[in-house]
Specification:
- The structure is a single chain.
- By secondary structure, the chain is α+β, with helices and mostly antiparallel strands.
- The protein is 38% helix and 38% strand.
- A four-stranded antiparallel sheet has the order 2-3-1-4, with helices on one face.
Length: 93
């Protein structure tokens, strides 16, 4: 069993309040969860208006497949108009 863990740092440039941020992150999390069948949640910087850290995990019997899924998530978020991908890291367990 292989567990892929992806940590993403994103910016929400237009967020002028926590409400704006929560709406953007909630929408992004729902779309990623539905499209890629992964677990995703906001894990850090909960009170920052324009920044968020997201954690994404996928479980697979193949490390290659898990890495491919996480790379697709990175590409999807990088192409999202509502957020800017600042940094990311992948870890395989």
């Amino acid at each position: 069993m292989h567990i892929g863990v992806l940590t993403l740092s994103v910016s929400i440039g237009y967020a002028d309040s926590l409400k704006d941020k929560r709406q953007a992150i909630k929408s992004l999390v729902a779309r990623v969860r539905n499209k890629f069948n992964v677990s995703i949640a906001e894990v850090d910087e909960l009170d920052a208006w324009r920044r968020a850290t997201l954690g994404v995990t996928v479980v697979s019997n193949s490390a290659v497949f898990a890495t491919q899924v996480l790379q697709k998530v990175i590409d999807y978020i990088d192409n999202d108009a509502n957020v800017v991908l600042d940094d990311y890291g992948i870890e395989m367990i």
